[in-house]
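Quick entry between incubations.
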Amino acid sequence: MKMPKLLPLETETERTLVKYNMLLRGDSVVVAVSGGADSMALLHCLHRLTPRWDLKLCAAHLNHRLRGRESDQDAEFVGSACRELGIPLHSEVAEVGQEAAARKRNLEEMAREIRYEFLRRVARRSGAQKIALGHTLNDQAETVLIRFLRGSGSEGLSAIHPVVDGVIVRPLLGCSRDKILKYLKIRGLCFREDSSNRDLAIRRNRVRHELIPYLEEHFNPRLIETLAASAELAREVAGYLESQATSVFGSLQNQENRGVAVQVERLRELPRALQKSVVRLAIRTCRGNL
Amino acid sequence: MKMPKLLPLETETERTLVKYNMLLRGDSVVVAVSGGADSMALLHCLHRLTPRWDLKLCAAHLNHRLRGRESDQDAEFVGSACRELGIPLHSEVAEVGQEAAARKRNLEEMAREIRYEFLRRVARRSGAQKIALGHTLNDQAETVLIRFLRGSGSEGLSAIHPVVDGVIVRPLLGCSRDKILKYLKIRGLCFREDSSNRDLAIRRNRVRHELIPYLEEHFNPRLIETLAASAELAREVAGYLESQATSVFGSLQNQENRGVAVQVERLRELPRALQKSVVRLAIRTCRGNL
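Done. Structure below.
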């Protein structure tokens, strides 16, 4: 296959990818592809890097069936894009709406859970070490802002992690949506636009299309970068607190009890910030999540 | 002097005052009074609590001379209010605008510096242990929001501290502006409105009159309380980080050097969050501030 000559902008996107040092030479990678701008850029970038980095790519697309015909067209679009690139595609249909209704779960959460399960299953089956997701600097900033308005502490403000468990990686997390759109345009690449992205009744869309432009205009023209940096700061602090909490947690556990029982009188002697981290750790140890 | 019967709402305001446990029986207190709603409420509340708490009050007003005739009227208003209450008033005029221009300083910062110098001088002269300021829950939320949009970490997000050096106290910091206005209305108390408070070219006014109402409507109806709680969380974390940094700082200092020289190779081994706290501490040790 003849590779087109590299454009300068692609080199820039590659630098963004390299920055997080998320992929290793020879990695087998599942790329999650919705068909939208971010994931199409990710797919194309990783495809371009494949010969240089000796990657082994496959794509994964889950049709959530939430937007009828439009959802099916997304799946077809991803299918033909992968065929063109010669990348094997794992595609599945999940009736997310029905599932959420049956289990009385929040639709967005349910969709997320089913999607991540699907991606991990594809990775297992294809023997991939990594799952690459197309989250961007803008997604990061939006998440930080939403969490801040909800009152999150440093753990919540850590927002989207660049790497989770060494498996999930987000190579575009340092890259703004503007840059991605420019990249797609210069390369002449197509992508699908999700019609629900314009619905201002959805909180994230209001943040993206209303709140952030207002804040950029009146308070901080570099808001996206600022908030993404705040997420990194928060992640450092949350990581430090957790490591400190872990090191005192053992000594605080009641020896007579085999569950998680913390000696409250000794917990009380700790600084407040550490107390809270220990309690979070205890809950996570018990329940597996927060 | 005959005290009017206590209304239930005043009791509530008192509880807010008591919550922070900032004033002790027998304390001599300088109350900073601009003539605006917050400081007038503070003055009246503390005046009411005087017999119960055995306080010794005096008021302090600095005429910044930034709004011409309006500034002078504020000073006159505060003067007559204090006379009516029988509270001694220390009043001064500072040509803040000229001072800032002469020293090429930011006007707001300069005004703040001159005002705090003035308050500390009044406290020294009158032998007062405390300086009480009228900052409210809304001031706290606004400050947290402004700092967040600027990218502050936990130290900056701590925003307005309820107590500084055991001298400056902010008894109304847990009390919303709404509550204060209701209190003033029920008591039939007057206050001055600063005409510049409506000027949307001033960042804080835009936050107060535009951004916060928008966020309350679309994201969090209890935003003020949420952000004030975030400030408290951040203060706990910043305090913990500082105490940890202090305990490693000594061991990191280079023994051959009498200034602040930190062993960089050992600093590098620390977790990132702690590294930054140590560097902040080193700068503060050198320069007295950040």
